[in-house]
Amino acid sequence: xxxxxxxxxxxxxxxxxxxxxxxxxxxxxxxxxxxxxxxxxxxxxxxxxxxxxxxxxxxxxxxxxxxxxxxxxxxxxxxxxxxxxxxxxxxxxxxxxxxxxxxxxxxxxxxxxxxxxxxxxxxxxxxxxxxxxxxxxxxxxxxxxxx
Length: 147
Fold this sequence. Notes:
- The protein is an all-alpha fold.
- It has helices spanning 2-45, 52-59, 63-74, 78-96, 101-107, 113-124, 128-146.
- Helix 1 (2-45) packs across helix 2.
- The longest helix is centred in the N-terminal third of the chain and has 44 residues, at 2-45.
- It is elongated.
- 17% of the residues are buried.
């Protein structure tokens, strides 16, 4: 009868909607896992030469998908994130002050001094030496105020 057919169609429609929901949930979980694998790899290897291919391979996804996921989650590209981590490490090392800028640059994963200077200036709006001097002057003023 028509009523039975309508009930059957309603059940079938509910089943399709539920299956679609499960697929979307599974895709979101897979994307989340891929992004976490990528971020973990970057955190553990940012001082080494790594490429988008390396990160995508570890994340078990394509470069395009990784780039899209990364941008949506962090608002940054994969390369920008790597560079930010490197510069953060550089700043920590420069605060200690027992290594030259060049030594710090290579230790933190930069391939050349020129690349290091360009990225540092882009992110900190000054040269590494100026940043280090500003930090040291700030510490000197702070210690004078305490004394």
